[in-house]
# Entry
Amino acid sequence: MKQDLQHGVIEMAHGSGGRAMAELIDQLFLKHFDNQWLRQKQDHAVFQVPAGRLAMSTDSHVVSPLFFPGGDIGALSVHGTINDVAMSGARPLYLSAGFVIEEGFPLADLERVVRSMARASREAGVPVVTGDTKVVEKGNADGLYINTTGIGMVPDGIDMEPRNIQPGDRILINGSIGDHGIAILSQRENLTFDTDLQSDSQPLHTLVSAMLKSVPGIRCMRDPTRGGVAATLNELAQQTGLGMVLEESSLVISPAVQAVSELLGLDPLYIANEGKLLAFCPSGEVDKLLAAMRSHPMGQNASIIGEVQAENAGMVSLNTCFGGQRLVDWRYSDPLPRIC
Amino acid sequence: MKQDLQHGVIEMAHGSGGRAMAELIDQLFLKHFDNQWLRQKQDHAVFQVPAGRLAMSTDSHVVSPLFFPGGDIGALSVHGTINDVAMSGARPLYLSAGFVIEEGFPLADLERVVRSMARASREAGVPVVTGDTKVVEKGNADGLYINTTGIGMVPDGIDMEPRNIQPGDRILINGSIGDHGIAILSQRENLTFDTDLQSDSQPLHTLVSAMLKSVPGIRCMRDPTRGGVAATLNELAQQTGLGMVLEESSLVISPAVQAVSELLGLDPLYIANEGKLLAFCPSGEVDKLLAAMRSHPMGQNASIIGEVQAENAGMVSLNTCFGGQRLVDWRYSDPLPRIC
# Structure
């Protein structure tokens, strides 16, 4: 039977393991994600791996709204997990996708999400090889949640762990901060701007690969998502027992992000990013690494934003443009829920 | 700061990437799942694998209620994914866990789930090595959803795919049918019985391993979860273009499952199982396989329930106890939503 992808909605039957679910998988998921693994219609995928170190990461995506400037939950769920895998230095290989869908959700919206997810997966070269579909009654989910789990192989000789971080290391970022969180917020608050306010959602694995080719000795990488650069650095400062000092003048903040942040009293340092990474680099190799980042399309606006120090252990501080210094504290909560 | 695990509830802050989330991870997830990978507090886990075939499977769990006789969403989410991985013949190695939690959910209930999940993971010898926590506003999830994704290594020489199934193959199952679905249903309908009605939720990987040791040439295995034995066999009949005939007299159905099914007009063939597998075996090896199953604690009630045939292509039928034959059709929907 043919599912009505234009006018139909998700029914409880689509998650029940019967014919309705098989039809939805064939006519929607398989159509867009099509690959040799999904075509086998098993509850698992099997693929060959070489001996070595495998990296695994998982992310459940509950972003609201589902569609936002510069992306949607589908593309985001691909980029988010690819980035988490890539932060280990690994080359991402395969993704799984688990959907929890609310009864009544339009099939046309689901197809729009899955099409976007499939495109993101194809463009990144990381196929979705296995999946799962669950349906919950109307009112029991906010449209759609997507879990993606990814695995990848870590190249020999690469070791990126917080414990590698040393005093004197430089902290780099591949571009502007706060774009994703502010793009989501602008949708919620119905803010409109002349400027182009877009999520920075993008897959960072090719940038990571270029960076490691240039400087294999990068100490550690992290993607500053929920809680932004501030939360990520505070967590690492706590874990390593080191201090981190940022230079405000080196932070790249777009005029639109700056404007919205001022309007709403937000600090871009705490706003989520979905296409950014922080890298800790031995000071002697920082120029080489910065050059490598800037010659990659996703790192054109890369900059050195700070330094690791033995002093002020466990703390993050900021040298302001006006010559002062202030603490960037580890907040209990992020001001923007459900941005990923 | 200490989270109040006895009286506290989940707040939006617990999913925000700030200090509250770090505390929850440390004081609840890390406490119970504790292992070398989680202790590194990365967004990924890295581990060594040998060269070979890796199997990957994912399942989002939305079972309602969260606690039921014989299990809960925590143990189920471990067993479900271990079983999906094991059905490829693989030895499960590692799990990821992604939590979507509703604001206001009691931390005491969350700890109960996580404790159970950690116990199931320990008992199965398959650690949860990486995770993710998201919180959605009150009313946007039904307490708690858990995605688990698992990977495992397929031993050399093992190949379990539907295309291997041949006419003449025997169909085996490791015990009674319908226990999980009926146990869940009994909770929803407030049915009480003198008999002990319990979910069969259990991890099948050691049974699979014993079966493959005895008969490496098993054609294919499947766990008959949503939609039960009927949906699983219909799907395989469609995929292979073969017919499947079941013997009603060989099906094992507990008196309690039989009683509830009759009361509510349900057919146990369509009811979900969470600790059962169907195996397709060349007829010449079926006695050996049956003996191997029966000598494993999870296969003591194993039986040969049917046969594959070239006739009645794509269909499943049942030889009844009264000497008739009826079609076991592929239903559009499962009568029991959200059983896993």
Notes: The mean pLDDT of chain A is 95. Chain A has two domains: 12-154, 162-327. The radius of gyration of chain A is 21 Å.
